[in-house]
Specification:
The protein is of the alpha+beta class. The chain is built from 22 helices and ten strands. The mean pLDDT is about 95.
Length: about 425
């Protein structure tokens, strides 16, 4: 006989969506589980709906198909399918127990015991389940922990971490989003003791979890705890000195809550190299590389920013070399680092004026291309590229204001100079 529910609540709206309602109706004894229940109780938006059922995966798939839902076998080895109705996906999983775990993967078998399934989850706030009628089951005190802002592992923290090493990183993500006050001492002690196991995690899993942590509204407190426990240097290396201070400063100055901007702030140098090691996408790495270059372009004009400048010519030169969004990111980072370390430099108002002026200017584009040099009679090759580059340097030095005709005249003049130097004397 199953445990009775601990409470009955008004069924949250997510249970009444067409797909969720159809899934729960098609599977006897099924319940919504995990994040949807947690966020509904916390009064937060529900992003995804997960359902569990005391049925084997084959029967789940058959019942859902018979009810008219499309079924995708997205994780059948672990008892998971995805049901789709009217474009709305619902992940459905058989109740499970772990047979073998090695810190990265688990071998599971199916069960009909809800408590046993809940006991294999990571945190008490994720071990809640809810029927379509609003009956709530809470085997480990998750509802009280959620109300108190307390992130606790289910059962023994060391055991949960040994089952899946990624839970050490997941703890900080949930602490950033749901934790208030002092973190759970047992959780922190267990994580500190499990730091050595983090090297066994795949780079892709670490990168995914870091980005999700850095998307939290205010992650600096959780990142400070990662520093203190040794977790952050274990996954990023020693270059993350002062990471939490940089994040806190970004928040204090009102920087956008961009996870990639925050990742850059975690490292005093080498963010792009760290992202490559963590198997970030090429696009993500290139964003970090471009931001690093933009930061180097901003450094020389910091004194002018502090004094109310630089002039529009200098701003146009910056925009010609770097996209606006990378310059703005680099300015946020430089401002935050200066603030975190107490370095002298432009004040907050000066940085705000600098960003506003950059944003108000159209990005200048060098008006010549290779075809312009060909039209002037040049032959393709290194010399043509060199003269176009020299013309572009002249255009930059002039504040990027010279138009196409002036630049063509400059290019033609450079060509005449070279021609004159090659004529024989006499």
């Amino acid at each position: 006989m199953s445990d009775p529910p601990v409470a009955r609540i008004d069924p949250p709206a997510f249970l009444a969506t067409p797909a969720a309602a159809a899934v729960l109706a098609a599977l006897p004894g099924s319940r919504a589980v995990g994040g949807a229940v947690r966020d509904a109780l916390a009064g937060r938006p529900v992003a995804d709906t997960d359902v569990a059922a005391p049925l084997p995966p084959g029967e789940i798939a058959a019942r859902l198909t018979a009810a008219g839902l499309k079924v995708h076998e997205t994780g059948l080895a672990h008892g998971t399918v995805t049901a789709v109705l009217d474009g709305e996906p619902v992940e459905v999983t058989s109740l499970r127990r772990d047979v073998v775990t090695d810190g990265r993967h688990a071998v599971v078998e199916w069960t009909t015991d809800w408590r046993e399934d809940a006991a294999r989850r990571d945190f008490t706030i994720n071990a809640l389940s809810l029927s379509a009628g609003g009956d709530l089951w809470d085997y480990f005190g998750g509802r009280e922990d959620l109300a108190a802002g307390r992130v606790r592992f289910v059962g023994d923290p060391a055991t949960r971490l040994a089952e899946d090493h990624l839970r050490a990183l997941r703890y900080f993500r949930f602490q950033a989003r749901y934790g208030r006050g002092e973190p759970d001492p047992a959780a922190v002690a267990a994580i500190r003791g499990a730091v050595g196991s983090l090297s066994r995690l795949s780079a892709e899993r670490v990168w995914s979890e870091l980005k999700r942590l850095l998307a939290a509204p205010e992650p600096s407190g959780a990142v400070a705890l990662m520093e203190e426990t040794g977790v952050l240097p274990a996954v990023l290396g020693p270059a993350c000195l002062g990471a939490s201070g940089h994040l806190r400063a970004l928040s204090e100055i009102g920087a956008p809550p961009d996870p990639m901007l925050r990742f850059d702030a975690l490292l005093t140098h080498g963010a792009a190299e760290a992202a490559r090691r963590l198997k970030a996408s090429n696009e993500e790495v290139q964003r970090l590389v471009a931001r690093y270059r933009a930061g180097h372009d901003i450094l020389p004009v910091q004194p002018e920013i502090a004094a109310g400048g630089p002039d529009d010519d200098a701003l146009r030169r910056l925009l010609a070399e770097q996209p606006l969004d990378r310059l703005l990111d680099a300015a946020w980072l430089r401002q935050a680092v200066n603030r975190a370390w107490g370095w002298e430099g432009p004040g907050d108002e000066a940085w705000a004026r600098f960003r506003a002026r950059l944003s108000a200017l159209p990005r200048p584009v060098f008006p010549l291309q290779g075809r312009d040099a060909l039209a002037l009679g040049m032959s393709p090759g290194p010399e043509m590229g060199r003269l176009l580059a020299e013309t572009r340097r002249w255009w930059l030095e002039g504040g990027c204001t010279a138009g196409a005709e002036a630049c063509r005249a400059r290019l033609a003049g450079l060509m005449r100079d070279i021609h004159a130097k090659t004529l024989p004397e006499g």
